[in-house]
Amino acid sequence: MWDLAKILGLVALCATPLPAHAQDYPAKPIRLVVPFPPGGPNDIIGRVLGQKMQELLGQLIIIDNRPGAGGALGTDNVAKSEPDGYSIAIASAGALAISTALQEKILYDPLKDLTAITLVARVPELLVASTTVPVANVRELVALAKAKPGTINYGSTGPGSMPHLAGELLRTSAQIDIVHVPYRGAAPAVNDLVGHQVHIMFLDVPALLPQIQAGAIKPLAVGGRLRVKSLPGLPTMGEIGYPQIEADNWYGMVAPARTPPAIIAKLNAAAVAAMKAPEVQEKLASQGAILIGNTPEEFAAYVGSEIQKWAKVVQAAGIKVN
After folding, report:
1. Count of domains in the chain?
2. CA atoms within 13 A on the CB side of 152
3. Does the pLDDT at position 9 exceed 60?
4. Do both 138 and 110 map to the same domain?
5. 142 and 106 fall within a common domain
6. Is residue 149 in some structural domain?
7. Looking at residue 43, which CATH number applies to its domain?
8. Among the listed residues 201, 144, 137, the one whose alpha carbon sits nearest the alpha carbon of residue 177
């Protein structure tokens, strides 16, 4: 039996308001860290989503580009920020899952130092080539690389990024000798690909589609399981004999660990609602992004499973980043 004191105590507990910082959130502009330079897929997704979220939250969202170490530097900046909801990040698979397997000394633990908000999008990777590389498909590329070992290079958005891992999967699966050229993000990497300083590259659809449509680079294959709607005639790596090369990148929103659950809930609700907005879907889906929008718990579990998945790939390929 409940006595009166217990009943009154329970009523008081239920009536307790949220802490002021959570109840009034957001009371000032929110910093959304994009851990890559402007112009890349991470930046495009962050800006489109951030613009809609600021409408829904009624507060300015400032994009803060902090490139370096395949997205790890910007993500680490948020991990070490105050857990008050005013510093968040939209980070890639490289920074949230792959980097833990690649680096001997990691800057942060994605599962302990960050709080999951939501999985934002999955984006297929494309394998593309400079127009000066004399190949029309992957088979011709592999033949050329075998005929001239060590002369073909591949760009990436930084050590530990998905494009880096996809390139290493191509190297080991096709048994070819190609050279890794890391960049501090997608935009400078694509610039050098168009400028013929880089020969081939795996990269997200949004960063490559305009250059493909302009004829500035050549698409060779899709790195994911499914073909891309914007390039329906482009085969997948599996279709041409390399099913082990699966490189769908993904992007998720995170906050520092110990950010109050009420604030995480507000951010999650705003992000998911933004992803359902027709204008956001139109801008990002047309670029090849598959919008997700799940719960913090679902996203945290997904990050954990991705860490285990890519750790096996990294170990099998013998990849290491200092």
Report:
1. 2
2. 26
3. no
4. no
5. no
6. yes
7. 3.40.190.150
8. 144
Asked whether residue 198 falls in the same domain as residue 167, the answer is yes
Name the band, by pLDDT with cuts 50, 70 and 90, for residue 225. confident
Greater confidence, 264 or 14?
A: 264
Predicted pLDDT of residue 322: 60
What pTM did the predictor assign?
A: 0.78
In a domain, 240, yes or no: no
User: H/E element holding 61?
Assistant: strand 61-65
Q: Tell me what pLDDT residue 135 has.
A: 98
In angstroms, the Cα distances linking 247 to 127, 189, 224, 269 are 10, 18, 5, 29
115, 257 Cβ separation under 8 angstroms? yes
Q: Is residue 242 part of a domain?
A: no
Compute the average pLDDT of residues 277-296.
90
Q: Show the DSSP H helices in 41-98 as ranges.
A: 41-57, 72-79, 93
- What band does 289 get if pLDDT is binned at 50, 70 and 90? confident
More confident call, 23 vs 32: 32
CATH code assigned at 134: 3.40.190.10
Q: d(Cα 144, Cα 146) in Å, to the nearest integer?
A: 5
Kindly state whether residue 230 falls inside one of the protein's structural domains.
no
Rg (CA), the chain: 21
Task: Using DSSP, state whether 1 is helix, strand or coil.
Answer: coil
Domain span including residue 270: 29-122+249-317
- Same structural domain, 97 and 153: no
What is the per-residue DSSP string for 176-230? --EEEEE-SSHHHHHHHHHTTS--EEEEEHHHHHHHHHTTSEEEEEESSSS-BTT
Average pLDDT over residues 82-87: 98
